[in-house]
Write a structure and sequence with these properties.
55% of the residues lie in helices and 0% in strands. The chain is mostly helical. The longest helix has 23 residues. The protein starts with a helix and ends in a 7-residue tail after the last helix.
Length: 202
């Protein structure tokens, strides 16, 4: 009888410790090969994952977006892995010391990159929107959105119901675009780009 009571008491004492251990237990499932975050809905949820940052910077610099050919994927990968940028807005605030950490970029190449970056500050609205990498927004969809909504500033305030009226945009995409503008990292990117002379009103 005494042994049974002891076992029951031990089990009761163990349960809270087990609950705490389960709380801190690392989630299961496939992981991102770059940052080891657990994949959710077939995508890495980590906003500062170097792979995701590289993809965003590469899109930003593409000919369909801001057209900065001197800053290719190798340079974007280094910027992301060194945690020098989290979003395109931070590209325009990099110091000479930051650029010096990027391997394989000569002084002449850096001058050309910076010239291209300065020229990129006057893009077509659709190219700028494409470079922001909103979920599901391709280069052609960016053009359609600008034609329908008018500007990126106006798009920020557009409700999902209105977005769904545009050909090619379903409910999931409409809410994805709406949420993108309300994310803190994306808001910071837009603010920094605005401070560097980008125009979101035209």
């Amino acid at each position: 009888m005494g042994s049974t009571n002891t076992n029951t008491t031990e089990r009761r004492m163990f349960l809270p410790f087990q609950a705490v251990a389960n709380f801190f237990k690392e989630p299961g499932g496939p992981k991102c090969p770059e940052c080891a975050s657990v994949i959710i809905d077939d995508a890495c949820p980590n906003l500062d994952c170097p792979l995701k940052v590289t993809e965003w910077i590469t899109r930003w610099c593409s000919p369909e977006a801001l057209n900065i050919p001197g800053l290719g994927q190798p340079e974007a990968e280094q910027l992301a892995k060194l945690r020098l940028v989290l979003h395109p807005g931070e590209l325009y605030g990099l110091s000479p010391g930051d650029w010096a950490r990027i391997e394989g970029v000569s002084a002449d190449q850096l001058d050309e990159i910076q010239r291209q970056m300065e020229a990129s500050k006057s893009p077509k609205p659709s190219a700028l929107l494409h470079g922001l990498r909103l979920p599901g927004v391709s280069a052609s969809m960016a053009k359609r959105l600008i034609e329908e909504i008018g500007s990126i500033d106006s798009l920020q305030e557009t409700k999902p119901k209105r977005l769904q009226e545009i050909d090619g945009i379903d409910e999931a995409m409409a809410f994805g675009v709406y949420r993108w503008f309300r994310d803190s990292v994306n808001k910071q990117a837009l603010k920094m780009l605005d401070q560097n002379g980008f125009n979101f009103t035209d």
